[in-house]
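Thread title: Can someone regenerate the structure for this chain?

I was given the following input by a collaborator and told the matching structure tokens would be attached. They weren't. Posting the sequence so someone can regenerate them.
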Amino acid sequence: MVPLNTDCTVIVMAKAPVAGYAKTRLIPALGADGAARLAQRLLRHAIAQAVAAGIGAVELCCAPDARHAVFAELAGDSRVTLSEQGEGDLGTRMARALQRALLTHERAVLIGTDAPALDARYLRDAADRLADHDAVLGPAVDGGYTLIGLRRFAPTLFEAMPWSTPQVLALTRERLRAAGLRHAELPPLHDIDEPADLVHLHGPA
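Best answer:
Regenerated them for you:
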């Protein structure tokens, strides 16, 4: 078992796996119920990998709130705590979670639940990069990113960002440079966002 490193935390940003709310762009391919089932499967996988990484405490940051039964079930693991994303766009919510985490930890790594290839080793590699970098990115093949980790908080990384567009990664790199943050990058991974992305999903949807 990998020893727990208390100076790092992993934040998993997740929507409640509710039909018509989670993974809506997959509804044309899977239907609302099927998209919600996939969202729950991806959520469970992300939490399992975050715990298995052993790099620190795991915070499940929930939307629209933390009341869904699956969130409560996952928090039954003593290594997982629940928080709520709160109001604002994605950038506002991510910034809030990271800034809060960095008040009590030297390093914070934030992921979503959309990249099934993001595993425990990938998370450990991210934490390792933060030993000698201010930030780490896990690029997504679609031009976004699947992971961001920070030692120093910079609000400009999250303000007025055109989320869910191919410009996100390039703009984030530019803003890291502008903020004077030295960053590292991990190998790119596929997100499961659109019906065409389902080919990158292992096992039944």
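The chain has five helices and seven strands.
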